[in-house]
Amino acid sequence: GESSMIAAERLLLASALEDPSNQRFVLLSDSCVPLYDFGYIYRYLMTSPKSFVDSFLDTKDKRYTMKMFPVIPKEKWRKGSQWISLIRSHAEVIVNDDTVFPVFQKFCKRSLPLDTRKKWLYLKHRRHNCIPDEHYVQTLLIMRGLESEMERRTVTYTTWNLPAKKAEAKSWHPLTFTSENSGPEEIEEIKRINHVYYESEYRTEWCRANSKPVPCFLFARKFTRGAAMRLLSEGLVESSTDTTTTF
């Protein structure tokens, strides 16, 4: 979540760009699993001329600071998942950026303590809290006028543990899939998702690749080792069974 994460992503992309045959760049975590076989994922990403970047306006967002202006105008500030899939030209934009990234390094920093028992001290003093990797790529691509070259959604599924108490609303965490809750029904439920609703924009994003309807997600997280082994042993990672989906 720190700017060092963005720096690491930029280094990874720079290294991958050295090979001209690399045309798509997918960022995943070590707890991600594929929902389909390699051939299906490859066709899904390669036949689309667009990047898949979760990107939206968050009207309740308090992470932007006017200290970022004028380099980053407030109306260009975006939020989204850090799990992205990029076309080559967008990866080059990120690697070559020497304007927006320094502003993130200086003004977009996490300030909330790891010890949630001390969180009230930060809230009392109104410390600014910003999570760089949930904003950088989205904001940069919008600032470069590339929104029309993006599918504004991620291809990596995440579901969240919603806090029971309103006071804990800032402490959401991704739900962890274990061997107990990663069976055929759960996986098929994820595969059937064909749209994403963005409440802050009142926008329904119908999932498409190369202008054709497709399942929204190619990957999912967070899966334990036991959950991943169950997917493999039960053959839950396979080609799409939807014969209407062609690329």
UniProtKB/TrEMBL annotation:
GO terms for cellular component: membrane. Keywords: Glycoprotein, Glycosyltransferase, Membrane, Transferase. One of its GO terms (molecular function) is glycosyltransferase activity. The keyword Glycoprotein applies. It is found in: Membrane. It is a single-pass type II membrane protein. The keyword Glycoprotein applies. InterPro entries: BC10-like (IPR044174), Glyco_trans_14 (IPR003406). Its main location: membrane. This is Uncharacterized protein.
